[in-house]
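Q: Here's a chain of 310 amino acids. Please give me its 3D structure as tokens.
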Amino acid sequence: MRYLFKGEWGMSGKALFSVLFAAVLLPVVVAGAADEDALLNDEDMIVDFGVNFDIPENATAWPDGREKISCSCRTNTDPADAWCEGRAMYFLVKLQNWGWDIAYNVTLVDELDDALEYVPGTTEIATDVDNYNVNVYRVWQPIPDGMNYTFPLAGEGYKVADYMEYCDQSTWFCADSLLIRFMVIPKEGIPANRIISNSAIIKEAGSDENTWYRTNRNVPLRLHKGVCLTKAECYEPSQRDCGGEIFSDDCVAFGCPDGFVCNEDTGICEEVAETDEDSTITDDSLIDNVTSDADTVKPKDGGCGCSLVF
């Protein structure tokens, strides 16, 4: 065997060693890079840390992963997000923490489309979930308006919680779940083809902007003008259809909404059990087992056709 020495390959022995070493190492490096690339592109292998206000689609309490919705006097054939001329409507924002850390000083920011006017005194927050309907909240509390009755979520926003525990991703249960709603009305004279957009920001106060979460995965609501129910059928959407009615902690003093009776022992409104289609109440369905004029259920109106759509 003839050995090649310095000068015959036109390179030093050191250079020759470098070439041979690179030839051996290159496949290993390429294979390692391929494995790393596979890991980075496998979403199931990426672990998220911190807080996360993006509600997953599998959270059945709020389907489709939408944090922000609208509720108007639309008809059943109108788009899910529709505005009605001359009629107020609700925007609702749901907050849950689906991350792995507790969220602190949770703040909600919302800037209205310039085609909308805020209805003063209508911003509310609820934390008490109805055990029988996870999309209906009870015990609403007002969020005070800003100076001169301005929209309280504009500008720097409003702190809605000192902290929020993270949800259990194995059971889809959230110990802390907030719902905020407010009413707006389209301005007079806006064109029928005007698309009204709206989005909100959920963040921890003082956090870096690149950590802020924009609702619905940064896809704003886009409301088209709807056919809508007549004003006689729906002058404005009801609280019951848009997140739940306000329940007083003392129904003995303040009474109950239609379809509920007051439990005088607890002071809480309880839903009346209907025994047939005409909503007749029997003694068995009443807490005090006594029928009276006060126990009569009023006929239901036509409703708004504006149930929550998620």
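Q: Can you summarize the key feature?
A: The CA atoms of residues 287 and 296 lie 14 Å apart.
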